[in-house]
Amino acid sequence: MIDSHCHLADETFAGDLAEVVDRARAAGLERALVILEAGNDREAAQAVQVNALWPDVRVAIGVHPHQAHAFADNPERAAQVVAEQFARTPSARAVGEIGLDYHYDYSPRDVQQHVFRAQLRLARELERPIVIHTREADDDTLAILGEASGGRLSGVLHCFTGSAALAAAGIALGLHVSFAGILTFPKAGALRETAREVPLDRVLAETDSPFLAPVPHRGKRNEPAYVERVIAALADVHGIDRAEIARRTTANFHSLFRP
Description:
Helices cover about 45% and strands about 15% of the residues. It is α/β, with parallel strands linked by helices.
């Protein structure tokens, strides 16, 4: 199994990082993709600790839409910060998470869009996949991805909670779709129906830990070991065994992120 999106460099894990890694590996995880906020020195330092404990971990680096406002005067600087950190991080494999978030609007929407576009250009220059965050911004996200794609994209719509139409549009652009613990929530029936429609060669599993712990851990801190609950939920919706979903999602991760 692989956790395709987690935040092990978050300060929430600082006090028991070794134990969290041990539990992940004991649960059968081969590796994880750790998301880093570009320019965040504290996260970068903790990522070094993660790598020492778990050398198979890989990372993605990006400016999240919540932080886009820091680059309002120079959106291209966001891409430069990512590029500089990417160059000094041997385990970096993707640009992300990047995108648009119109739910909180912590950054002005036009600034989010400019910063998103700048990082998409960087990803194409680096020939690396993207990790996309989109919340209540589907139309603009798809429009910008369409502009930047040149016909096809490499990347993933992470922690997917959107509609079947959004999933289909992302897949048509060449993207994968990743599901997190929300898939296990009792009221997530519509999301499970959408997950059933995602082809098995485009599906990924993640925790987005420390957020969104799956049932039966809901309400507690999430961690990579719990990705097995997402794997179980995906197996249920597709009507196949867990080992097969674990195999498929692992193969998809390798194909996308070239770890």
